[in-house]
Structure formats: structure tokens, C-alpha cells
Amino acid sequence: MKRDKPRRPAAFRLDEGVEVIPAADPFAPESTLAEIATTRPVRKPARWARLLAAAVGGLILLALGLAVDSLIRALFARTDWLGWFGLALAAAAVLAVIALAAREILGLFRLRRIERIHADAAAAASADDRAGARAAGRALIALYAGRPEMARGRTALAGHINEIIDGRDLITLAETELLRPLDDIARRMVLTSAKRVSIVTAISPRALVDVLFVVAEIVRLIRRLATLYGGRPGALGFLRLTRTVLAHLAVTGGMAAGDSLVQQLLGHGIAAKLSARLGEGVVNGLLTARVGIAAIEVCRPFPFVTGRPPRIADVMAELTRAARKTESEPAPPSSN
Q1: Which of 31-40, 220-229, 269-278 has the lowest mean pLDDT?
Q2: Helices 235-251 and 30-38 meet at what angle, rounded to 10?
């Protein structure tokens, strides 16, 4: 039997031709996990799905146009003044549709503008880029140019924008002068909504009422926070903003934080010390606050560089205090 000739020793790279993908550390902080998750490619809608939506929308518009045309022709055939009246109503409807479309387009532009300012400010702060920080600061001044209550902050930032050398320090100054007052208002909005949800769901007799009220309060809170920071979204813009907030909440582990928070409440016996309904109200209020905190991080034009972002622990302390106060209040006398 003929034996094979032994191979000569050779050096070669183990990673040659192999793409190495770093694995996420389960013990890494939330910011690192968020960066890893956001770098994954996002699947775009299929081309045929977009074509189908455009074709169906065009057919619906054509059908509405033909129906209106037939109606106006029938009105003119009956009598002239009815025809002119129907034509005037159709013109008013078209004008209203154009105004609503313009409003939605402007709302989407404002949201994209805030997203672009946020991305530029984050990049300038991380790289300590002076030119990028100055551009982001001027964009922030232009964003709040029409708000008289922020005139002092705009003047202070504009006066120092060419004097500060470090880009990170300039981002910090812009955050202090213009965004800190808005952050205080946003924290109060989140706390107020969380308290309202906690109280209403604690006294509500139906689970369906609880769900509807929590959803309505979250929708109202997201819209108010977006308006506070300069977004003012329309209907389409609000849907896009809500999707972004939920995506941010999922990426940063918001639902997991909510679950651990519920376990912490039950484990420490806070919910047990309260009544069952009050404990449930506290948990609903905390989940509402978590969505509000995610909305602040999405709607804010600048990232939190030196400022402290709102924490769920602060809201938990306030809600627990309010629940204990509600439980200690004497019940109203019975009418019997």
C-alpha cells in the first residue's frame, strides 16, 4: 500500500476570507447594545408592495373623481344653482385636502429636521468636532427662532458660538441654554401623565377602560412632547414618530426594564403594601413613564451629553408616594 507524502508545515491566517462578526456581550451596557442593534441593516419595503399601494391609491382617487364628476353633472342637469353649489363644495373639499397634505408634509419635514440635527450633534459631540458643533448649534437656534420664550437662550448661544473651541463644550452650552428648560417641562409632563394613568387605572372598574385610557394618554403624551421640542407632527408624522419611539424603546430594552421594574415592585413588597388596584395603577403609570422617557430621547434635538436624562426611579418614587397618600385618605361616607 502506497502511503501519501506528508505535507510540509506552512503558516496561514485563520480569519483569511472569513467575515468576523463580533457577538454582543449580554453584560454590556444598554447604550452598547443599542449601537449594535442600530447597525443592523433595515429591510426596506418590497418594490412590488410599494407599486401595489401606489396603484390601489391611484384607483381610489380616480373612482372618487369620477363619482364627484357624475354627481356635479347630475346636479347641473337638475338645475343650475344646485350644480354650482356642488361645484363650490367640491372646490372647498379640494382646497381642504391640499391644506391637510401641506400640513402633513411640513410635519414630516420638521421631524426629519430634528432627526438630522440630533445626528449631527451626536457626531460632533463624540468626535469633538468644532465645525460640526457650530453647525448643529446654528441649526438649533434656527429651529427655535419663532419661540419668544427662548430668546434669552438663543442670544446667549449665538454670542458664544464662535468663541468656544471644543465641539463637545459647544454642544454642552447649547444643551444648557436651550434644552434644559424644555427638559424640565418634559419631565413634568411625563410625571403628570404617569400619575393620571396610575390614579385612573386604580379606580377604573373595567380592564377595557384601563387599556383605552392608557393608550389615549400615551398618544397624548407623545404628541405633547413632540410639540414641546419643536416637532408639531401631523397624522402621518405622528404615526412615524410613534413607530420610532416604539423602535427606540425596543432597542434600548424598554420592555425588559419594565418587566424588571414590575419584579422589583413585587419583590420589595411595594405592591403588596398597597391594595391590589393601587399596585396595578402604579405599574401602569411606570410603563407610561417609560414610553414618555423614550419619546423624550427621540423628540429631543440634541442627545443627552452632560445633562441627566429622566430616570424611571424618580417616577416610581412619586407614584408610590401618591398611591400611599390615596390609600391613606378616608373613604367617602356611604349614601345609605
Answers
A1: 31-40
A2: 120
